[in-house]
Amino acid sequence: MYPVRTCVGCRQRGNRSDLIRIANFQGNLSVDTEKKMPGRGSWIHKKTKCLETAVERKAFGRAFRGKADLEQVTDLVKQIEQAEMMLEI
Ligand SMILES: [Zn+2]
Among 7, 81, 82, 85, which residue has the fewest nearby CB atoms (within 10 Å)? Predict the structure, then answer.
């Protein structure tokens, strides 16, 4: 009954509402709070660990060139936290 998505970090399945959609639009990653941004989307838990794992296995595709860019991940985590706050209003 519940829409289920697989986390690109830990590979565990989760309820759609427990996962964040990361849109990869023209090489830029951003948190898709409306869950309908253009471009390829990746679903991931709201956990730094999952984001780091996803970066390590290049789950976000070409958005990260070469090795993992933890700075970009940190930015994403901040975006997620801000999105969370907006959702709670
Ligand atoms: Zn996960």
Answer: 85
